[in-house]
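Cross-check.
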Amino acid sequence: MTVVRAGSAAAGRPQRKRPWRPAQRLALSVRLIGGESTGSYTRRLADANGIPDQEFWPMFGTPLRKAGVPGDPRYGYLNTAALDRLAVMTGRSVGELQSALPNLRANRLLTAAGGPAWDWPWDTPGCFLVRVCEMCARIKGTAWNSYLAADATWQVCAAHGRWLDNRREPGTAAIRLSAVPEVADAHRLRVLLERRLGAGGQAMFADAYAIASCWWNIPVLNAPVWRTRRRALGRAGRDELRIAPLVFSPEAVRLAYRLAARERQRQRRTLTEDADRAWLEEVAGLLEQWRIPVVEGLAMVEAWMVRHPPLRPVPAGRAASKKAVVEAERPRRGRYRHLPLHAPHTDPALEVDTTLADRSCLPWRLGDLITTELFPAPGGWRLGGRA
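Predicted model, tokenized:
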């Protein structure tokens, strides 16, 4: 808005808002990278057309902050009207952009009403910035310092066998998984689990990841194979905090499959006491195989079981009236059918935009200091950080 001095001729008469000029298509476009952050994509777009960030972002509309220039363009967010302008500028449909760029989907657009607007919040829900695989970037014909909008501080590029994370120190590149192929295999199994089971599969992996994180937080519960993988990674393996999710991911994925099997039986209300005991013995067998102390390691699994108690069958006298309700609530038979979300994973606040850690019903996070009661110590530190 134009500032008008009290003594000027324009003072006293109503001021009209300056109309927005219609968006025009840019001379050059760039290829989309699936999962890329909006800010990373628009920065590549600006570079391709030789437009500085300070001049490019105002083309989307009004900044929501007084400074008027992006503090770090990798974090840029748009509202609906600004998204429409981006579609015109790139010559792509809104649907095409939203399919490739997660932060342009409806639940992550800015709520600013009116004209086109943009912002660059740093601490955003459900999103971490993870550097794109350099091989993928090369194929797309772009710089390798592009960024994905991920639900965790790490990602796996299955196509090129790379472990990606949010480290940005000079010389910090993606970690090659050629020395630990089981990690890439575990990622494929995780993707398969989540695609087949849907939101329930995602919740089960989040719980398994939390349990494995707690095992990692307590050194005596570390599986010997985790140290073996660290050594196999060479120099990258010296950074314990960085590679922790990598080294225990195969065990976390295998555990997720076991949690999902019990959860399906629980939701079908067919989980008996004997079946529950047999299931726990199977998990104990896994811990023995991984050489994790069984009694201590099972304590975390049993804490998960407490949060996922068996559901009572419908009483015989009420079976007729409740049959339709029960059939609607419980998942279909078959281990590859979708697994619905059920308590304790039904918090509406966590259904729209959540990180991997927030999907879990368990309190443990990687890096927590754990008390003897298996709860994070008050004031303890943890491995986190948004970007």
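The beta strands are 62-63, 77-78, 117-119, 128-131, 147-150, 154-157, 162-165, 175-176. Confidence is low (pLDDT under 50) at residues 1-20, 320-328, 381-387. Passed to J.P. for a second look.
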